[in-house]
């Protein structure tokens, strides 16, 4: 099928590549010329495992094209995805200007019926707005005979496993009550439904709410565990044992119950804000959602508080090693990353940061530029040079195997603060390190391994 995708970010680019890979003819359009020039050469604009190979293969096979010309995309795609950003407005509501402007652009150019598929995360009622705006634009062009069908098809991929998630979706939500659009979507997604039917059809508004409900539920689980971690810590209980204990109940499951230094990324914080705004607008007091957000706001300050508690003299002049800058492993995305809250707070306290991340160094430089209190180190272990303490913000695999004796020798305060509970507290205590996790019992370092 001929498909076009507006927006070649995390969602649009991965969706375009995955659809091309199953045999569709895809044109991806973006307003960012630099991105398009790079993508035409098969160079991904983001770090996602498996994406480079998928781009190369499908560009070579002639199934995947990139352009800045919206008119080419509108002429090509019978089905046109809208996968542009929906960032928060000041009041927390989702900014729909990019979605609506793409919809108007399509209606302003189309010469045949088109199906507009909203992939972006948008509040309930957006499909109705898109339908009204496209109809008005078509009517103003005297194209009253043309139809712009509007489908709500939210995306559930996770960054860091976007290609895998998009290639093998656990569900496909189609919000549309139009039989023509439904049939097109069934044909488009048929290759993803070979083993069993993954598609659920519903109305647009329900599909729009499914997306926010899913993200809010996942965020709630994390805030619940973070609150419980604080309680466990004050009781001297190990939250990791509690996590395993509850996760084994299939009604609870192991996913999304990892306590940590707060959830980040471009979506959970933004989507919670938007859902809170929708609730308020409709006279519903979003008590739970507000609490989920408040717990997360506090959680993002926790690493700093734990660090300050260990240095009663203050953090001014201290050198802190930071492992992990991306908001989660396997991505270079630092939007709302816990590392940013930590580093900015450390700088405000007069501390210096020596940081390393396997993928997000360029992104970190882009955000913070060159500054005296930030050293981006070539390797994980270089960060430890002249450092007082180590703080871990992201659970990259490359951080899991560590020579604890080396850590003790290098870190002046022999202190490791772990925002992801990567290690066994007993092992670090035996190695003579002060190890402070999230909801883990503190075990005094064994005196045998601590130099006099
Ligand atoms: N990042 C993620 O993991 C997920 C994001 N989403 C949702 O998908 C949407 C897009 O998110 P991302 O891909 O992360 O955003 P992004 O910021 O990475 O990409 C958006 C792209 O749209 C382009 N764009 C803006 N206006 C345009 C226009 N008029 N024509 C063509 N291109 C245009 C931008 O240049 C940019 O490349 C958001 O609503 C987000 O909430 C949904 C699921 C997962
Ligand atoms: O709407 C979106 O954009 C996407 O948002 C999330 O995906 P993403 O933000 O890419 O990554 P997650 O794996 O969900 O992690 C989000 C944050 O939660 C944190 N997290 C996750 C899981 C957990 O148990 N504990 C925890 O603290 C992660 O460290 C990270 O900071 C959802 O998982 C996706 O289904 C959704 O499509």
UniProtKB/TrEMBL annotation:
This is UDP-glucose 6-dehydrogenase. It is an enzyme of class 1 (oxidoreductase). SUPFAM superfamilies: 6-phosphogluconate dehydrogenase C-terminal domain-like, NAD(P)-binding Rossmann-fold domains, UDP-glucose/GDP-mannose dehydrogenase C-terminal domain. One of its GO terms (molecular function) is NAD binding. Pathway: Nucleotide-sugar biosynthesis; UDP-alpha-D-glucuronate biosynthesis; UDP-alpha-D-glucuronate from UDP-alpha-D-glucose: step 1/1. Keywords: NAD, Oxidoreductase. The active site is at residue 267. Substrate binds at residues 156-159, 211, 256-260, 264, 328. NAD(+) binds at residues 30, 35, 86, 121, 159, 270, 335. Residues 321-425 form the UDP-glucose/GDP-mannose dehydrogenase C-terminal domain. It catalyses: UDP-alpha-D-glucose + 2 NAD(+) + H2O = UDP-alpha-D-glucuronate + 2 NADH + 3 H(+). Its EC number is 1.1.1.22. It comes from the Bacteria. GO terms for biological process: polysaccharide biosynthetic process; UDP-glucuronate biosynthetic process.
């Amino acid at each position: 099928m001929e498909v076009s995708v507006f927006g070649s970010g995390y969602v649009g680019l991965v969706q375009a590549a995955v659809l091309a890979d199953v045999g569709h003819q895809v044109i991806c359009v973006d307003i960012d010329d630099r991105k398009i020039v790079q993508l035409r050469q098969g160079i991904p604009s983001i770090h996602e495992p498996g994406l480079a190979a998928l781009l190369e293969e499908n560009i070579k096979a002639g199934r995947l094209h990139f352009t800045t010309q919206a008119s080419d995309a509108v002429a090509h795609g019978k089905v046109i995805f809208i996968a542009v950003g929906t960032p928060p407005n000041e009041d927390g509501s989702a900014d729909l200007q990019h979605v609506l402007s793409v919809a108007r652009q399509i209606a302003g150019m189309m010469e045949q019926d088109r199906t507009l598929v909203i992939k972006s995360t948008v509040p309930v009622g957006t499909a109705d707005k898109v339908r009204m705006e496209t109809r008005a634009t078509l009517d103003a062009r005297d194209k009253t005979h043309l139809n712009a069908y509007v489908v709500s098809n939210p995306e559930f991929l996770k960054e860091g496993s976007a290609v895998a998630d998009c290639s093998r979706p656990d569900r496909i939500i189609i919000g549309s009550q139009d039989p023509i659009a439904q049939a097109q979507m069934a044909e488009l997604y048929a290759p993803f439904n070979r083993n069993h039917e993954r598609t659920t059809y519903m109305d647009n508004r329900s599909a729009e709410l499914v997306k926010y409900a899913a993200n809010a539920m996942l965020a709630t689980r994390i805030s619940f565990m973070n609150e419980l971690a604080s309680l466990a810590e004050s009781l001297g209980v190990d939250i990791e044992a509690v996590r395993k204990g509850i996760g084994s109940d299939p009604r609870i499951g192991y996913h999304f119950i990892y306590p940590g230094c707060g959830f980040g990324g471009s979506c959970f914080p933004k989507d919670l804000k938007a859902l809170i705004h929708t609730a308020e607008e409709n006279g519903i007091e979003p008590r739970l959602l507000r609490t989920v957000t408040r717990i997360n706001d506090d959680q993002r300050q926790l690493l700093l508080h734990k660090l300050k508690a260990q240095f009663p003299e203050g953090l001014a002049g201290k050198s802190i090693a930071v492992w992990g800058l991306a908001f989660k492993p396997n991505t270079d995305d630092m939007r709302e990353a816990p590392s940013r809250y930590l580093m900015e707070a450390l700088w405000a306290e007069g501390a210096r940061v020596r940081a390393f991340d396997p993928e997000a160094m360029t992104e970190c430089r882009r955000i913070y530029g060159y500054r005296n209190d930030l050293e981006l180190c070539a390797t994980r272990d270089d960060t430890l040079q002249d450092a007082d303490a180590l703080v871990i913000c992201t659970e990259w695999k490359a951080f899991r195997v560590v020579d604890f004796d080396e850590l003790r020798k290098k870190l002046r305060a022999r202190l490791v603060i772990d925002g992801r509970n990567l290690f066994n507290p007993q092992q670090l205590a035996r190695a003579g390190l002060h190890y402070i996790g999230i909801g883990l019992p503190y075990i005094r370092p064994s005196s045998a391994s601590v130099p006099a």
